[in-house]
Design goal:
There is one protein chain. The protein is α/β, with parallel strands linked by helices and about 350 residues long. Helices cover about 45% and strands about 20% of the residues. The chain has a five-stranded mixed sheet, sandwiched between helices. A five-stranded mixed sheet has the order 8-7-6-9-10, with helices on both faces. Helix 2 packs parallel to helix 3, helix 5 crosses helix 6 and helix 6 packs across helix 8. The protein binds 5'-O-[(R)-(carboxyoxy)(hydroxy)phosphoryl]adenosine (KG4) and zinc ion. The site of 5'-O-[(R)-(carboxyoxy)(hydroxy)phosphoryl]adenosine has 20 residues, from helix 5 and helix 6.
């Protein structure tokens, strides 16, 4: 069983082939970062148009990389949401149309389900149940995962997502888009002792997050000390430490409250080197285990969509001829695939 996965929810075109027998056969990503850099953020209309340009050549490339001559699969998975409407429509229309032409089933995958299942593509995948920390540009969530489609939202950001806070703070420091990795690089040269920013919402019970205040804090401190390479690095370090420490504290609380021992970390911010190190330490302290996708599968990619689609299609889920695109779609409204729900 061979599944084609297509991701076009934001500014990365991702395509992958996942096989039941051999796992991930090939994948390719095209990042639009340079296209949007001049604007300091993603321009939705440009994103949609670029997905149109990139998707089919990328698809051909993936089949070539996999050594498969006949461009055809046994099922198609595409990201149906959440994301930018126009961008989603491109992947959804291509995916649904290919499935129709090949007379095979198609499934519209929830982007965040893709992220949280991404560690399953690694050599030592986590077993269910686990706690998932999803930290991307659009979402920050703690989710109790009992199985495919069995997700309970434990906490989320009440304002900016962690990645969004990284990006906006990077912009304040005049770093190029996308800011998260650039800010992390700058923070490496920063003095961790110079400033201590607040850890928002850790003194209150609960597992929600709030990151927008840290952006304001960065702006105020940066204005009061003035701009220099070292000042910027010190402020970046204080910001990054505050975000990482907050995520650490909330993950520890969630593990203790749920009694879960396995922690999965996914989404773009999951590529952050210092976050990975801190959470490895947490797992060791708590006697549990932490699982990350490889860094290139933390950010958006087609492999996670192919895998999530494979899980759902192989458990009997498939959809009608409608092209599904849902820009807003809550993860905890998902259901287990039919065969699981019955069992
Ligand atoms: O999951 P993702 O690729 O897209 C969404 O679904 O949103 O996440 C992108 C986010 C961006 O905000 C980006 O700045 C952030 O992940 N990011 C990072 C790092 N790499 C990517 N943030 C902090 N440190 C990084 N190393
Ligand atoms: Zn994402």
């Amino acid at each position: 069983m061979l599944i084609l996965g297509i991701e076009t929810s934001c500014d990365e075109t991702g395509v992958a082939l996942y096989s039941k027998e051999h796992g991930l056969l090939a994948h390719a990503i095209y990042s639009q970062a340079r296209l949007h850099a001049d604007y300091g953020g993603v321009v939705p209309e440009l994103a949609s148009r670029d997905h149109v340009r990139r998707a089919i050549p990328l698809l051909r490339k993936v089949f070539r990389k996999a050594g498969i001559e006949c461009v055809r699969s046994d099922g198609v998975a595409y990201t149906a949401g959440p994301g930018l409407m126009g961008a989603l429509m491109v992947g959804a229309a291509i995916g649904r149309s290919l499935a129709w032409a090949w007379n095979v089933p198609a499934v519209g995958v929830h982007h965040m389900e893709g992220h949280l299942l991404a560690p399953m593509l690694e050599l030592d995948p986590p077993a269910f149940p686990f706690l998932a920390l999803l930290v991307s540009g659009g979402h920050t969530m703690l989710v109790e995962v009992a199985g495919i489609g069995r997700y309970q939202l434990l906490g989320e950001s009440v304002d900016d997502a962690a990645g969004e806070a990284f990006d906006k703070t990077a912009k304040l420091l005049d770093l190029p888009y996308p800011g998260g990795p650039e800010l992390a690089k700058l923070a490496e040269r920063g003095d961790p002792e110079r400033f201590r920013f607040p850890r928002p919402m850790v003194d209150r019970p609960g597992l929600d997050f709030s990151f927008s205040g840290l952006k304001t804090c960065t702006l105020n401190v940066s204005r009061s000390i003035g701009r220099s390479a070292q000042n910027d690095a010190d402020v970046a370090r204080a910001f990054e430490d505050a975000v990482i420490d907050t995520l650490f504290i909330k993950c520890r609380r969630a593990l203790r409250e749920t009694g879960l021992t396995r922690l999965v970390v996914a989404g773009g911010v999951g590529a952050n080197r210092r976050l990975r190190k801190r959470l490895r330490g947490l797992a060791a302290e708590e006697g549990g285990q932490v699982y990350f996708p490889r860094p290139e599968f933390c950010t958006d990619n087609g492999a996670m969509i192919a895998y999530a689609g494979f899980c759902r299609l192989s458990m009997g889920q498939s959809e009608d001829m409608t092209i599904h695109a849902r820009p807003r779609w809550s993860l905890d409204t998902l259901e287990a695939p039919v065969s699981l729900a019955r069992g």
